[in-house]
Amino acid sequence: RMEAVVFVFSLLDCCALIFLSVYFIITLSDLECDYINARSCCSKLNKWVIPELIGHTIVTVLLLISLHWFIFLLNLPVATWNIYRMILALIND
């Protein structure tokens, strides 16, 4: 039962993260074509950084708790990179 919940949540989270990545690419494309200015682009994208971090970290922790070691090890580098990126952003502010 726990396995099914973890995989369904992982699937929904991955779909949301893919949608978010496409949104980032479209927004950056608008910036490149001068449809929006840099300040507007940053304000649009910055509000999605924390939800991205939380979503990916939750899935990684759930995979660890449910003992899916291989999938956990596949997700661990990305989660570690996101946490590292957030720590650097907090230090630089």
Please specify the SSE layout and strand pairing.
Elements: H1 2-32, H2 38-46, H3 49-65, H4 69-92
Helix pairs in contact: 1-2, 1-3, 3-4
Keywords: Membrane, Transmembrane, Transmembrane helix
InterPro entries: Cornichon
Membrane topology: Multi-pass membrane protein
Question: How would you briefly describe this protein structure?
Answer:
The chain is an all-alpha fold. It is built from 4 helices and no strands.
How would you describe what is shown here?
- The protein is mostly helical and 93 residues long.
- The chain has one domain.
- The protein contains four helices and no strands.
- Helix 1 (2-32) packs antiparallel against helix 2, helix 1 (2-32) runs antiparallel to helix 3 (49-65) and helix 3 runs antiparallel to helix 4 (69-92).
- The longest helix is centred in the first third of the chain and has 31 residues, at 2-32.
- The termini are far apart.
